[in-house]
């Protein structure tokens, strides 16, 4: 299957990442943009750009017809959805197929099976993978309250078509659930154009560990080990690393085998992530993200495999150029998500103009962003500016290198989370690997993080 021109249905950092991968493969890139993003970095870098609507995502980046019109207008052979927006929308993937445009991702059927979190849980169970207790088919607050009584508080309300921590609310009792349920549905509708939610038992203090998988259309599938994504603020990942300091070699192998069993059961192709909660030496499937992940760079640095390029090659119909025995885990990598937020003001978004941006450099330091000096941070979208990713032969050196790189990163004109990341990496609990999904919120609450 020949692909010569790829339309990128996204913005910001991931749009830049895909443009660069296209260029490495000799492919032309077309980026769509809202009226707020006509001067944005992806537009400046891409070979072509098409304006698709006003600033709100519901009127631009979430409009399937507008994006398909842009693909036809620009004569694109393929569409890469990135992450977020329509990346896990089966209707979008099906619409691409109907227009004879290659969707760079899994089939619409696979997205429906695994992107839908309820169906994904069923497939995991069929594949013999343990899951967290949950209830689906919930349409109103009364049904949610009944389901919560069945599985027990605390519960999480999660978006059926979501991912990336969006559309999730935790409720410890009926009163909180009554408030959280409509909020989760509204956020799910806003982010994924799908208000459906389900309930899942909330574990008190698990680790969040995910397995990166990659599969082609010739029956080949591999896993690329794990990423530990436990450091989250309100379910939003802040720092990811590989390998996880919580896994033994045996457990790592066991989780990789489980992830591939699920991939085969789902007849899944392209890149994807199988997410688990880990407690002690037990792990439970929570969902699969049917797309490239924000944190994919961590895996790239410890395996040496370019996941976006592999996605594009699979979309072209090529078989994977390596098998499981070729995938080696080397060293340690840490990613820090740098956001335009003010931690001292409750992480209030900080839109405005970046008056100066100086990125860190040096060996094994990777800065990936969708903005440069002079760019305006728009108030309409996710606040992430970029990702700082480092690699080192061991975890202690990776932490030291991360702190050095953070000290060199200078962003003026807006508030950012740079200093907070330095505070996290300096904590003994992080250095010893003794943390879980509740740690960041607890450190913020007790003042030990933001006072640094």
Question: In short, what is this structure?
Answer:
The protein has 15 helices and 23 strands. It has 452 residues and is of the alpha+beta class. It is globular.
Q: How many H/I helical runs?
A: 15
Number of DSSP E strands: 23
Tell me the helix content: 25-40%
Strand content: 25-35%
- Rounded Rg: 21 Å
SSE layout and pairings?
Elements: E1 5-8, H1 12-24, E2 28-34, H2 41-45, E3 48-53, H3 64-74, E4 78-80, H4 90-98, E5 102-103, H5 108-115, H6 117-126, E6 134-138, H7 141-151, E7 155-159, E8 169-171, H8 174-192, E9 197-201, E10 207-215, E11 221-233, E12 236-242, H9 249-265, E13 270-279, E14 282-289, H10 296-303, H11 307-315, E15 332-339, E16 341-342, E17 348-349, E18 352-353, E19 356-358, E20 365-369, E21 376-377, E22 384-392, H12 395-408, E23 410-412, H13 418-426, H14 428-431, H15 439-445
Parallel strand pairs: 1-2, 1-4, 2-3, 4-5
Antiparallel strand pairs: 6-9, 7-8, 7-9, 10-11, 10-13, 11-12, 12-15, 13-14, 15-22, 16-17, 18-21, 19-23, 20-22
Helix pairs in contact: 4-5, 5-6, 7-8, 12-13
């Amino acid at each position: 299957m020949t692909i010569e021109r790829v339309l990128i249905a996204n913005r910001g950092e991931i749009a830049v990442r895909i443009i660069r991968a296209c260029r490495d493969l000799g492919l032309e890139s077309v980026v769509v943009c809202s009226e707020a993003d006509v001067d944005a970095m992806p537009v400046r870098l891409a070979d072509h750009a098409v304006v698709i609507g006003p600033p709100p995502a519901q009127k631009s980046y979430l409009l399937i017809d507008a994006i398909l019109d842009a693909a036809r207008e620009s004569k694109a052979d393929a569409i890469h959805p990135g992450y977020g927006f329509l990346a896990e929308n089966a209707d979008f993937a099906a619409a691409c197929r109907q227009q004879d445009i290659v969707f760079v991702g899994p089939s619409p059927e696979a997205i429906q099976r695994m992107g839908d979190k309820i169906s994904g849980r069923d497939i995991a169970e069929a594949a013999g993978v343990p899951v967290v207790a949950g209830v689906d088919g919930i349409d109103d607050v009364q049904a949610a309250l009944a389901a919560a009584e069945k599985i027990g508080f605390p519960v999480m309300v999660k978006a059926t078509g979501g991912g990336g921590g969006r559309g999730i609310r935790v409720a410890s009792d009926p009163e909180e659930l009554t408030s959280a349920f409509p909020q989760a549905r509204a956020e799910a509708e806003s982010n994924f154009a799908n208000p459906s939610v389900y309930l899942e038992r909330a574990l008190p203090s698990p680790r969040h560990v995910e397995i990166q998988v990659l599969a082609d259309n010739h029956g080949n599938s591999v896993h690329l080990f794990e990423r530990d994504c436990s450091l989250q603020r309100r379910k939003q990942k802040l720092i990811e690393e590989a390998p996880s300091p919580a896994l033994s070699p045996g457990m790592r192998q066991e989780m990789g085998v489980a992830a591939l069993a699920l991939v085969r059961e789902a007849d899944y192709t392209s890149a994807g992530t199988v997410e688990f909660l880990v407690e002690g030496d037990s792990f439970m499937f929570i969902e699969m993200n049917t797309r490239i992940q924000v944190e994919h760079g961590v895996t790239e640095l410890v395996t040496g495999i370019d996941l976006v390029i592999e996605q594009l090659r699979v979309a072209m119909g090529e078989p994977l150029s390596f098998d499981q025995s070729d995938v080696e885990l080397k060293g340690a990598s840490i990613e820090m998500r740098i956001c335009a937020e003010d931690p001292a003001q409750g992480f209030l978004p900080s839109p405005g103009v970046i008056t100066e941006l100086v990125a860190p450099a040096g060996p094994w330091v990777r800065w990936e962003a969708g903005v440069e000096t002079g760019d305006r941070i728009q108030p309409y979208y996710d606040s992430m500016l970029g990702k700082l990713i480092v690699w080192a032969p061991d975890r202690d050196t990776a932490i030291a290198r991360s702190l050095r790189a953070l000290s060199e990163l200078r962003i003026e004109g807006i508030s950012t989370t740079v200093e907070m990341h330095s505070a996290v990496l300096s904590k003994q609990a992080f250095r010893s690997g003794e943390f879980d999904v509740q740690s960041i919120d607890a450190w913020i609450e007790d003042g030990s993080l933001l006072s640094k």
